[in-house]
Inverse folding.
């Protein structure tokens, strides 16, 4: 009788464990590509491809803008409007903002610099592709990529 009870318990445990594994494997398919952590995500920007944008980022950080920013896509349009409000449009140039409007730290008080449209729009699209899979409130830091040596700088911008 004890052996029978033990067998029933073992079978019940095996069935429960199997069901647990099946449920666990179903959930794995729904995990995002990038899991949010408290770590800072490193965004490595190619200097040779976007020299004006990288120079602007460096200058803005040296002038007190934060080097780490927090992704918040929902308020980007409002922050962009606030940051560019007092900077007139200049023919042949875009107004680059740092921190970018996609970050909480962007908006009013962001550093604005006139740059060529190809540099500004190219770097904006490039950045958008790099952060598209990260959830909101992820922290990012920018690094400059020296394409001549294909090595990343040791320190952030």
């Amino acid at each position: 009788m004890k052996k029978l009870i033990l067998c029933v318990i073992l079978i019940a445990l095996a069935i429960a464990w199997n069901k647990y594994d099946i449920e666990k494997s179903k959930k794995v398919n729904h995990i995002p590509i990038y899991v949010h952590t408290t770590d800072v995500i490193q965004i490595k920007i190619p200097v040779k491809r976007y020299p004006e944008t990288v120079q602007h980022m460096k200058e803005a950080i040296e002038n007190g803008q934060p080097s780490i920013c927090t992704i918040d896509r929902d308020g980007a349009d409002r922050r962009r409007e606030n940051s560019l409000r007092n900077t007139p449009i200049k023919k042949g140039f875009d107004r680059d903002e740092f921190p970018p409007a996609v970050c909480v730290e962007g908006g009013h008080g962001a550093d604005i610099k006139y740059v060529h449209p190809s540099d500004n729009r190219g770097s904006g699209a490039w950045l958008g592709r790099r952060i598209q899979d990260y959830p909101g409130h992820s922290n990012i830091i920018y690094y400059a990529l020296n394409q001549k040596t294909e090595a990343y700088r040791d320190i952030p911008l």
In short: DSSP finds four helices and six strands in the chain. The longest strand covers residues 139-146. The helical segments are 2-28, 51-62, 76-84, 117-131.
